[in-house]
Amino acid sequence: MDCAIVRDEMMEVLYAEATPETARRVEEHLAICVTCRDEMAGLRHLRRDLGAWKVPPLARSAHPGRPRRPSLVPLAAAAGFVLALGAGFALSGSELRFERGVFTLRLGRGADATRELASAEERHRREIDELRAQLASAVRPATESAAADPGTVEQFQALLRESEERQARRLESSLRDLSARTETQRRYDLARVSAGLSYLDGKTGQHVARTTELMGYVLQAAEKK
Amino acid sequence: MAATDEELVDAFQAGDLSAFDDLLRRWERRIQAAIYRVMGTEDEARDLCQETFLKAYRALGGFKREARFSSWLYQIALNLCRDRMRRRKGRTLVSLDALDEEGLTPPRRQDPSPLDLVEADTLSRAVAAAIEGLPDEQREVIVLKEYQDLTFLEIAEILDVPLSTVKTRLYRGLGQLRLRLERQGIRSAAPVPAPLP
Predict the structure, then answer these.
(1) Residue A185 pLDDT grade (very low, low, confident, very high; cuts 50, 70, 90)
(2) Residue B91 and residue B85: Cα distance in Å, rounded?
């Protein structure tokens, strides 16, 4: 057989793809052809050498192959955070306003409470003034008619002072009540916000307790001031 | 039992895009290794592998099954390698043989550090350099046959050439390699005992 013709079949034998018939034909040729036999032996040896070339551990390509849907977990966490923040914002009585082209953010009820206290004081003062006016108009004819009776005038004046003091005490008491209620509500809101944020941050119960405790200290310190 | 490539292609074409993930997991390493052996650098292997799967993803919807999926994938990879080679040759027209004769390091690999030189596997480097210096057609056949372990039929399908052409390129390529390795002092021609009378 011609050496040139047997070369293709030698490749099949070399890579174990030859049919038994082809393999026998090649073996017969190699038995009588020193050149092809040498070549075949050299190619087998070469194949062993080629095996020495190893591919280094290749880093996986950052294939964009299939466009991936964004994971819903971070999205859900973000949504939860925004909801909790919104709830905390609402509970704390905070306010975001847009007036005359300017955004105004007010945190907590501090400003509200001050405004309420001021308006309550104003209301009470107005009531006192109204009482005074009524009293004055009721007393005037009596005073005029009983100008000669200084005892009656003094009695009216004493009643008036008493009334003023009573109103003042009531005002003070209601201011204290309002302040206490506002403070309680503020603490409750802060605790809710703190708990919500801690939950989102994945903090442990211990951490939450510590945060609440710290919050308590801060509130106590604020009260002392 | 794992789905075949063809079943995964069917699923993808029917709208199940996740089937492509399975195909990618199955073929990524092999394709990347083949590209590495053809191109010779890890960066290019990574880039071109990524590009291969990107192209495959875009074209898989219209894949007509005139060839096996794996053959089609190799075709994409080899075409990308050829494009890259052409661009590379346009930049540096330096004969590797000439470099060998002058005792210089081929330009396609980075200069090894002294430590690398000490630790390097001489034979591995010699083989890599010898394969690198082969004509593209021979190198592709040798990579697909020797390192990807594909059949002659599969290689003929991938390269779209007759079976006999694959064997001829392989035979010539192996002959070239023997010569190159011998030139580097590595004798692949094993001593053959004389035939008995």
Answers:
(1) confident
(2) 10
Residue B108: φ, ψ to 5° = -75, -20
Judged by a CB distance cut-off of 8 A, whether residue B33 touches chain A is: yes
Q: Residues B85, B26: contact at Cβ < 8 Å?
A: no
Contacts of A224 (CB under 8 A, 6+ apart): none
Among B175, B144, B142, smallest CA distance to A35 is for: B175
Which B positions 70-89 lie with beta carbon below 8 A of chain A? none
Is B53 within 8 Å of chain A by CB? Answer: yes
**Count of positions (residues) in chain A:** 225
**How far does B91 lie from chain A, in Å, by closest CA?**
26
**Tens digits of per-residue pLDDT, A10-20?**
999 999 999 99
Q: Of B13, B20, B29, B31, which Cα lies nearest the Cα of B75?
A: B31
d(CA B7, CA B162) in angstroms, rounded, equals 28
ipTM of the complex: 0.76
pLDDT digits (tens, 9 = 90+) for A72-83: 566 667 767 767
Which candidate from B33, B167, B186 shows the least CB-CB separation from A55?
A: B33
